Amino acid sequence: MQPNEWFFIGIFFIVALILPAVPIVLAQLLNPKRPSKIKRQTYECGIETVGDAWVQFKVQYYLYALIFLIFDIEMLFLFPWAVAYNQLGLFALIAMAGFVGILGVALIYAWRKGALEWL
């Protein structure tokens, strides 16, 4: 009797759930539990915290990060397309030009809104 193809997919999902769960459970069971006041203090790069540790950051930092991620993900789409460029047809060229065009419009929008100006 040959196993069904869903059997292997089920085994894959079970292994995918067990592999990360085992180290987490083992760490919880085996770690030493000796909490103290010093261990609960906020630690940042070896420098003692001065004032409140919850500081509000500028939204602009997040905008830079999001714009970076957008263009980083664009590279994930462009690289395989560029590698297989000789085997693709005109439709793939037009589709990628549309994709890059949409991202270009987004970049111009962010630029005009002043999201790229460092203050």
Automatic annotation (TrEMBL):
Major site of localization recorded for this protein: membrane
Membrane topology, as annotated: Multi-pass membrane protein
EC class of the enzyme, as a word: translocase
One term of GO molecular function: quinone binding
Catalysed reactions, semicolon-separated: a quinone + NADH + 5 H(+)(in) = a quinol + NAD(+) + 4 H(+)(out)
A GO-annotated cellular component: NADH dehydrogenase complex
Transmembrane segments: 6-30, 61-82, 88-111
Domain of life: Bacteria
InterPro entries per UniProt: NAD(P)H_OxRDtase_bac/plastid, NADH_UbQ/plastoQ_OxRdtase_su3, NDAH_ubi_oxred_su3_sf
Protein's UniProt keywords contain Transmembrane: yes
Subcellular localization, as worded in the UniProt entry: Cell membrane; Membrane
EC number: 7.1.1.-
Keywords annotated in UniProt: Cell membrane, Membrane, NAD, Quinone, Translocase, Transmembrane, Transmembrane helix, Transport, Ubiquinone
Stated role: NDH-1 shuttles electrons from NADH, via FMN and iron-sulfur (Fe-S) centers, to quinones in the respiratory chain. The immediate electron acceptor for the enzyme in this species is believed to be ubiquinone. Couples the redox reaction to proton translocation (for every two electrons transferred, four hydrogen ions are translocated across the cytoplasmic membrane), and thus conserves the redox energy in a proton gradient.
Subunit and interaction comment: NDH-1 is composed of 14 different subunits. Subunits NuoA, H, J, K, L, M, N constitute the membrane sector of the complex.
Entry-linked HAMAP family: NDH1_NuoA (MF_01394)
Family of the protein in this entry: Belongs to the complex I subunit 3 family.
Name used for this protein in its record: NADH-quinone oxidoreductase subunit A
Annotated source species: Candidatus Thermofonsia Clade 1 bacterium
Lineage of the organism: Bacteria, Bacillati, Chloroflexota, Candidatus Thermofontia, Candidatus Thermofonsia Clade 1
Gene transcribed to yield this protein: nuoA
